[in-house]
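PROTEIN DESIGN WORKSHEET
SECTION A - STRUCTURE
LENGTH: 332
TOKENS:
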């Protein structure tokens, strides 16, 4: 009699235990264990490292590479919240734009600062030990440029906040083709028509009042399609423009605009170009002004070097204090 009740009692005790103890705790522990193993697994770390980057260490002790972080700033949310705040404070449209820009930059900086701290501390230590030559932080894309050893690169891949490690790709600037001239060519180029720019012009929006910055191989400022669009152009003295605040040469330090490749003149034309009388509109925003700079050369250059400012900043302090401009990224 007693023996037959024992299995039954054990069954009921087990049933009560299952009802009392939270089942999800077992699932959570299992899940956490699995996630931890996955995070630290060599395969996951291996996947973070670009194959081309691995090959570069076969020939070099120190290699420059890019560290991209998983967390990227939610700029749309930051801008939307700023716009909502501006609305409540009854700000003007201009003040609203400034608040949105400030909010976006602040969010970008805060995200980079908060996610890069551990990696920066590690790199500082490795630099003192001689395993890292240089490193630089970026915030528009939450990333860092590092020149270090293979061991440093592999250790960086183990950081959970790091998304991937990429090589510093070599970018070569190709010379723009002159093409052919046809007297019967339409006054609006096919590519401008293709992106729907004329429909926007018909709404009264052609870029007027906007300054577009071009980071490329420079510009032939007195090109007929660009001369009067140059921000330094002086209609009272057409051949004596003011280059201060309007041009910057990060390669050779020349004071006047030039283009030793033709690529920058081509891209500036695509942005703002048109004939002096407003005809033959080859630019998407023919009403805008252009502020060119030279950062690219015909010689192949690493992408990080192209995008990185010199020690004293890409734009000179005076130019940074000049009127706001809409920057255009390098083109290749």
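SECTION B - SEQUENCE
RESIDUE ASSIGNMENT:
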């Amino acid at each position: 009699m007693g023996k037959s009740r024992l299995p039954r009692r054990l069954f009921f005790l087990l049933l009560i235990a299952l009802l009392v103890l939270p089942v999800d705790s077992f699932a959570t522990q299992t899940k956490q264990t699995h996630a931890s193993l996955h995070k630290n697994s060599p395969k996951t770390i291996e996947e973070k490292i670009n194959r081309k980057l691995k090959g570069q260490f076969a020939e070099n002790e120190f290699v420059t590479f890019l560290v991209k972080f998983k967390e990227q700033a939610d700029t749309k949310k930051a801008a939307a919240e700023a716009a909502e705040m501006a609305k409540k404070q009854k700000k003007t449209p201009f003040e609203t734009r400034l608040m949105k820009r400030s909010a976006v930059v602040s969010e970008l900086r805060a995200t980079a600062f908060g996610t890069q701290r551990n990696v920066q501390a590690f790199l500082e230590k490795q630099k003192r030990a001689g395993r890292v030559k240089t490193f630089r932080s970026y915030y528009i894309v939450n990333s860092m440029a590092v020149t270090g050893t293979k061991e440093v690169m592999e250790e960086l891949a183990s950081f959970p906040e790091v998304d991937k490690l990429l090589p510093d790709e070599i970018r070569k600037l190709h010379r723009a083709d002159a093409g052919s001239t046809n007297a019967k060519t339409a006054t609006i180029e096919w590519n401008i028509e293709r992106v729907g720019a004329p429909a926007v012009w018909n709404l009264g929006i052609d870029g007027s009042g906007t300054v577009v910055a071009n980071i490329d191989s420079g510009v032939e400022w007195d090109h007929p399609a660009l001369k009067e669009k140059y921000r330094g152009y002086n209609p009272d003295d057409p051949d004596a423009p003011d280059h201060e605040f309007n041009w910057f040469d990060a390669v050779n330090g020349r004071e006047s605009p030039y283009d030793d490749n033709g690529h920058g003149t081509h891209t500036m034309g695509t942005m703002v170009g048109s004939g002096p009388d407003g005809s033959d509109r080859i630019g998407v925003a023919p009403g805008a002004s252009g502020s060119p700079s030279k950062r690219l050369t015909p010689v192949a250059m690493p992408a990080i070097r192209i995008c990185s400012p010199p020690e004293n900043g890409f734009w000179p302090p005076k130019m940074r204090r000049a009127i706001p401009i809409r920057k255009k990224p390098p083109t290749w």
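SECTION C - NOTES
Residues 45-168 form one domain.
Residues 136 and 145 are 5 Å apart (CA to CA).
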